[in-house]
Specification:
The complex is a heterodimer of chains A (663) and B (100). Chain A is mainly alpha-helical and 663 residues long. Chain A folds into four domains: 1-137; 160-568, no CATH class; 579-614, no CATH class; 628-663. Chain A contains 25 helices and two strands. Chain B is 78% helix and 0% strand. Chain B is elongated and about 50 Å long. Chain B has one domain: Orthogonal Bundle (Helix Hairpins). With 100 residues, chain B is mainly α. Classes of the chains: A mainly alpha (663), B mainly alpha (100). At the A-B interface, helix 25 of A face helix 1 of B.
Chain lengths: 663, 100
């Protein structure tokens, strides 16, 4: 039974796991919950591997595998089936989601061991896997949207996992509401696509869009394609935490750390990038959309990196780093190197998941402490965590031969070679510098320098094996994950890009890209050199500031007071949103909608009807005197009235001819 | 032969007397009798029409009315006896428990 014909098994397994644990797991001991949750995701991972093997070994493996399972919605000309598909892009996403997801499940068994609601946690986590797999396997926008909303729901549930804590519950709501704004755009985009193409199936839409009759829309022209793409991108900015909808992701760190690693770093937040890459045929039709994607991505990358410079909460640094790296991915999509964006998505999933898990291990070791100012000198005490986290830091900073180096280089190269992309390249490079700085700042503050905690209160201990295993595997992936692109440096094939080529051939083989291919190769080494130098510079500054001159950062912070506090307060964006959007909305809700519309209008109408009925009854009840003779009079009067009507009606209708009565 | 109109006028007069007694009398038995009076006034009108039109429908109807009146008398007298037992009076003004 080839799995490829039964793709539904892959998402169904985690759903089963979620249902079993969620419905029955409440009274079970941890090890049974573990085996259900891990079994479901592990089997799902195995099935995914087998499906990928079958897909790759098919003789004609360029073709897209499309499976129709049942009709889901059919209304008029609109149909949406439960269709799953598999192509090269899906392969990458599928392996990242199931693989990293499985590792994080293993890690969670260690991390969550002493937490309440153990079965609930794994039930949500499995449910998340289900929706994420639906998202990446879906063969039409409608089914993709099901996964899209589902992962949002699981994100909400897991951010608010410690729901007794008000900040956690609020963060969950914030994530949900901000995402809803993006989803609004996404849905409008879908409607527009349906109107333009009469279908929401990927194959149909992309085939019709690739037709030459669809004109390329130059800069500044807002045709169907541009508007649809911008609306889809609006959804992507919500889900992938880009400007201006990124505000929920840093707050989402209220969730347990494995959740931050799985949902808010490795998988869910990359869904926006995936959608843009999946719809690349639409995006390349519109110059405006591409520029917007590139500029928003680039701006977010830089903006988030600057905030990350001064954060003191270890998870907050990583959160802003995630926002920044997602910006890189959008930059890649915007400049047309979609495979580089997906490549960065994959390597980022490895090293950012690792960073979060290692940070979780640090927090575990410190007994819940998250503030880096109260850490320091941990490298000797938690060696495994230190070394694995160092690998991830090297990878994200772009140290040569580590995973992030290749993917980030490809993105910067793409930005450099595109016409008018030099400013994007410059900002991207600057962001790389900032990235290296804040990541090494994190390493130095946490693991080096003086010990800044009270040893009597904090018993630093290495994490259990279930947590270290995933760390080591992810560290290996962070080191070698980028080597798929290694031969490109000496003119060899870029395995990753070649693998994805069938998917992106429509978008990337545009004339300009092909022409600059030769030039790009000669540029690749110098640009890589520049990038490495930048990363080194970032490292050096961090080293100088936090190891050599530990008092210096504070002095600098004081000397640029205003700038520092602005960064520390995240550019006051939350305050701005609160003042511009939340406050007026709250005012409108309480003063107008509640006090006027609801209380006066709706309640007033309902109560008014009730009062009216009562007073009418009060007036009329006096006719009920209880006196039999008065009833007799009423009967006689009634009879007389009926008689009068019968006898006099012909005269009345003759005297006043009414339209309806005249024959 | 007596013209039909005379019958009808007599019927109307009897009916009118029944209505007046129905409204103004206080004794429940008198009220009951006035109802019977109205029914019989109608019967008279039926019979008069039946004879004038040479059709038997009216006479059949009269038989129905007599049956209904008999049933009504059975129920009505039962109520009157009960009223006498409970209220010790036949005055309808004393029976006003239905007042709101």
């Amino acid at each position: 039974m080839p799995i490829l014909d039964h793709l539904w098994i892959i998402p169904l397994l985690p759903l089963l796991g979620s249902a079993i644990n969620g419905l029955l797991g409440g009274k079970w001991p941890h090890n049974i919950v573990n085996s259900v949750a891990l079994g479901a995701t592990g089997l799902s991972f195995a099935c995914a591997l087998e499906a990928v093997r079958e897909f790759v070994s098919e003789p004609n493996h360029q073709a897209l595998v499309h499976r129709h399972f049942f009709d889901w919605i059919s209304a008029g000309t609109f149909t949406a089936g439960f269709d799953l598909q598999m192509d090269q892009l899906t392969v990458v996403m599928l392996l990242v989601v199931t693989g990293v997801g499985f590792l994080i499940h293993i890690y969670s068994t260690g991390y969550m061991a002493h937490e309440g609601g153990y079965y609930r946690f794994f039930s949500y986590l499995n449910l998340f896997m289900f929706f994420m797999l639906i998202l990446v396997l879906a063969a039409n926008y409608v089914l993709l949207f099901v996964g899209w909303e589902g992962v949002g729901l699981c994100s909400y549930l897991l951010i608010g996992f410690y729901f007794l804590k008000k900040s956690a519950a609020d963060a969950g709501k914030k994530a949900f509401i901000v995402n809803r704004i993006g989803d609004f755009g996404f849905m409008l985009g879908m409607f527009l696509l349906f109107r333009a193409f009469g279908s929401l199936d990927f194959t149909t839409v992309f085939q019709k869009a690739a037709d030459p009759s669809w004109a390329h829309e130059p800069w500044g022209q807002f045709g169907t394609m541009t508007v649809a793409c911008l609306l889809l991108f609006m959804g992507a900015t919500g889900k992938s935490a880009q400007l201006p909808l990124y505000v929920w992701l840093p707050d989402a760190m209220e969730g347990p750390t494995p959740v931050s690693a799985l949902i808010h770093a490795a998988t869910m937040v990359t869904a926006g990038v995936y959608v843009v890459a999946r719809s690349h045929i639409l995006f390349v039709h519109s110059e405006t959309a591409m520029v917007v994607v590139a500029v928003v991505g680039c701006a977010t990358a830089f903006f988030a990196a600057t905030i990350g410079l001064v954060q003191t909460d270890i998870k907050k640094v990583l959160a802003y780093s995630t926002v920044s790296q997602l910006g890189y991915m959008f930059l890649a999509c915007g400049v047309g190197v979609f495979s580089a964006g997906i490549f960065h998505l994959m390597t980022h999933a490895f090293f950012k998941a690792l960073l979060f898990l290692a940070a979780g291990s640090v927090i575990h070791a410190m007994g819940g402490e998250q503030d880096m100012r109260h850490m320091g000198g941990l490298s000797k005490k938690i060696k495994y965590t230190y070394w694995t986290m160092l690998m991830a830091t090297l990878a994200i900073s772009g140290a040569p031969l580590f995973a992030g180096f290749f993917s980030k280089d490809q993105i910067l190269l793409g930005a450099y070679t595109i016409e008018g992309g030099k400013p994007l390249y410059a900002i991207g490079l600057l962001t790389a510098l900032l990235t290296a700085f804040y990541m090494f700042r994190l390493i130095f503050l946490t693991f080096h320098g003086q010990q800044r905690y009270d040893e009597h209160h904090v018993h630093v201990h290495e994490s259990p094996r279930s947590m270290l295993g995933p760390l080591v595997i992810l560290a290996v992936l962070s080191i070698f994950g980028g080597w798929l692109a290694l031969p490109a440096f000496w003119g060899g094939p870029d395995y990753f890009a070649n693998f994805l080529a069938p998917v992106f051939s429509g978008g990337e083989a545009s004339a300009a890209a092909a022409a600059s291919e030769a030039a790009a190769h000669s540029l690749e080494l110098p640009l890589a050199g520049v990038a490495v130098f930048t990363a080194l510079l970032g490292f050096a500054v961090a080293f100088w500031l936090y190891i050599r001159q530990p008092g210096k950062p504070e002095a600098i912070a004081k000397s640029v007071g205003g700038l520092y506090t602005t960064l520390l307060n995240k550019y006051y964006v939350d305050e701005l949103y609160a003042a511009v959007i939340v406050k007026p909305l709250l005012w409108l809700s309480t003063e107008v909608l509640w006090k006027i519309v609801d209380v006066a209008g709706i309640d007033g109408t309902v109560n008014g009807i009730a009062h009216g009925t009562t007073s009418l009854g009060d007036t009329v009840r006096h006719t009920q005197s209880g006196n039999t003779r008065s009833y007799a009079v009423w009967v006689v009067i009634g009879a007389l009235v009926i008689l009068a009507v019968i006898f006099l009606w012909p005269y009345w209708s003759a005297a006043r001819p009414v339209a309806g009565m005249v024959r | 032969m007596v013209p039909t109109n005379y019958y009808l006028i007599l019927s109307a007069i009897i009916f009118g007397l029944g209505v007046v007694a129905f409204i103004f009398k206080r004794n429940v038995i008198t009220i009951f009798m006035s109802i019977e009076l109205m029914l019989n006034a109608v019967n008279l009108a039926f019979v008069a029409f039946s004879q004038a039109k040479h059709q038997s429908d009216g006479q059949v109807f009269v038989l129905f009315v007599i049956v209904v009146a008999a049933a009504e008398a059975a129920v009505g007298l039962g109520i009157i006896i009960l009223m006498q037992r409970v209220r010790h009076s036949l005055n309808v003004e004393r029976v006003d428990l239905l007042k709101l």
